[in-house]
Amino acid sequence: MAKKIFAFYSNYSDSRIDRFRQETKKKNIEFKSYNFNKDLMMTERGLIKIKNNQTINLDKDYFCWIFSNSMLSHYFEKLYAKNANFVWPSRAVADFSDKMYTNHFFKTINVKTPKTILLSQNEETLLLKVNYVGGFPCIIKKVFGTGGVEVGIVNSLDDLKFFVKNFYQKKFNKNFSPFLRASFALQEYIKNTNGNDYRVLCLDGKIIGGIKRSSQNGDFRANISLGGKAENLPIDEKLKKICQKILRKRNFFYAGIDFIKKDTEYLAIEINTSAQFQGFEQATGINVAGKIIETMISK
């Protein structure tokens, strides 16, 4: 049984790393974490540490958890897959980091989801695409993104164009890479959600609990990172069946499946394969970090 865990992440701070460190210490499991942006470089030698220029060496005693969908994580897995255990392949993470792919996946397995369409650079088709999702107001979101960031409501073509233009201006003003590219999608706006959404957390193909997230400031987004409040969600039979259907169709090791409600119907909107769980733990009392670690080392 492996007793070593490596965690790799790309955010500059991540509460999940702190929780993993706490739980591995309790269980006397060796734990190391590296930030893809600050600590590592990809070279022809493999992944090396910036601090001392040493190559990272892994063996089958290590379980690797990747909190990232960066290209580095993809290369990393390709290089080290034969030498270590990857509990959640980067290819699967990449699939469901793509919001267009995720909505298509829901549609193909007959799980209800809001109408969604990819934007293109052809301005002549903008109104056609807006009409496809039900007209204004509608949701605009970056195809790759987390935490409810770069998601908004647009009420006109001018709003839509401003949203995209403003996104690039903000990024460049913050000295982001000049090679930055981003894709956007439009999505049907569901009225009367009252700033609420629902997350079901799943581990190794099983449901471990749920939360209801509620906006506290009038925002239509309920993300905890944006100030939303979480409370424990008793999972009713209808929601349980939808989640089990999704889990049967795709073998997730760990994921948060997000829903909104249209009247009494649940609509699946996203699958977050790198879901934050600090707010979930506080709302439910479930030790998510501990459960993840126990499941990893039992494999």
Which helices and strands occur, and which strands form pairs?
Elements: E1 4-9, H1 15-26, E2 30-35, E3 40-43, E4 46-49, E5 62-67, H2 71-80, E6 85-86, H3 90-97, H4 99-108, E7 116-118, H5 126-132, E8 138-142, E9 151-154, H6 157-173, E10 184-188, E11 196-203, E12 206-214, E13 229-232, H7 237-249, E14 254-262, E15 265-272, H8 278-284, H9 288-298
Parallel strand pairs: 1-2, 1-5, 5-6
Antiparallel strand pairs: 3-4, 7-10, 8-9, 8-10, 11-12, 11-14, 12-13, 14-15
Structure keywords:
single chain; 299 residues; alpha+beta; Dna Ligase, domain 1; D-amino Acid Aminotransferase, Chain A, domain 1; five-stranded antiparallel sheet; four-stranded parallel sheet; 32% helix
Tell me what the structure shows.
With 299 residues, the chain is an alpha+beta fold. The chain has three domains: 4-86, no CATH class; 115-188, ATP-grasp fold, A domain (Dna Ligase, domain 1); 192-298, ATP-grasp fold, B domain (D-amino Acid Aminotransferase, Chain A, domain 1, 2-Layer Sandwich), CATH 3.30.470.20. Helix content is 32%, strand content 28%. The protein has nine helices and 15 strands. It has helices at residues 15-26, 71-80, 90-97, 99-108, 126-132, 157-173, 237-249, 278-284, 288-298, and strands at residues 4-9, 30-35, 40-43, 46-49, 62-67, 85-86, 116-118, 138-142, 151-154, 184-188, 196-203, 206-214, 229-232, 254-262, 265-272. The strands form four sheets. It has a five-stranded antiparallel sheet, with helices on both faces. A four-stranded parallel sheet has the order 2-1-5-6, with helices on one face. The radius of gyration is 20 Å and the shape is globular. It starts with a strand and ends with a helix.
